[in-house]
Amino acid sequence: MPRTFWSGAISFGLVSIPIRVASATENHSIQFHQYHLEDMGRVRVRKICDLEDREIPQSEIGKGYEYAKDQVVAISDADLRELPLPTAKAIEIQAFVPLESIKPIRIAEGYYLVPDGQVAAKPYKLLRQALDRSSKVAIAKYAWSGRERLGLLRLRDDAIVLHAMRWPDEIRDPAAVDPPHETVSEEEIEGALALMESMSRDNLDGPEFEDTYTDALAKIIESKREDKPLPEAPEPEQPGKVLDLMAALTESVQQAKASRGEDADVHEIPKKKTARKQPAKKTAAKKTAARRSRSA
Questions:
Q1: For the segment 28-41, what is each residue's pLDDT rounded down to a tens digit?
Q2: pTM
Q3: What is the 3-state secondary structure (H, E, C) of the chain?
């Protein structure tokens, strides 16, 4: 069972569901520390008081807000728990909306909401089944770690998951990155759709969706520990300069089909349409007829 880092309740109208909150994700990446390379002594960060010029133990460290240059207001965890907000002790559901109405960029990290005790079992299951039946998600407000946030409640199997949400003013305008304003032809769009079709999958199962970086890093660590030569790195493919976008799309479709070892049922990339030129004799004949009609 993951560690509980917050407890309170889900407020659902007049229904209150006692819950505990645990992280829904975990990190499996290899962690590094800092070392003095000359003697491999561990380099540590020590917390020094500016006024006393000495290292301070964690028990003497707390939060503070610099109200003025020489005035700091100490804020304890107990103060934060007693905020004059209903969301300080409860995850308050505000509305139910279709998931499609939420922009994915606003959805952040996820947490499991665990029923706290037998008294919470029935209302927890009621909310879970109601969410499942409605095909909607719940939007709630809650306050953790000194700030109030919006949250999205959705289902994952039999568990209710809370996703933190970013406030609208936390999302930058896409214009800030100056998206390109190039135009593409209909044939190029059809070519891109054909490539997407050839790369389509029903799920994310397969070796191409596994973490190969951590495995490669573990091999390097093992080689250095045993004083063996490092594994040879494969030569990266150098992307060529795209001179003909349609040709690049066509070749990409062929490569995608070959990598899957099957003849995928994809749409053929349409060839560029070229305007037909009329034969020179017919054109000359038309011009002669036009001159005669004007002289008549």
A1: 888 899 999 999 99
A2: 0.67
A3: CCCEEEEEEEEECCEEEEEEEEECCCCCCCCCCCEECCCCEECCCCCECCCCCCECCHHHCCEEEEEECCEEEEECHHHHHCCCCHHHCEEEEEEEECHHHCCHHHEEEEEEEEECCHHHHHHHHHHHHHHHHHCCEEEEEEEECCEEEEEEEEEECCEEEEEEECCHHHCCCHHHHCCCCCCCCHHHHHHHHHHHHHCCCCCCCCHHHCCHHHHHHHHHHHHHHCCCCCCCCCCCCCCCCCCCHHHHHHHHHHHHHHHCCCCCCCCCCCCCCCCCCCCHHHHHHHHHHHHHHHHC
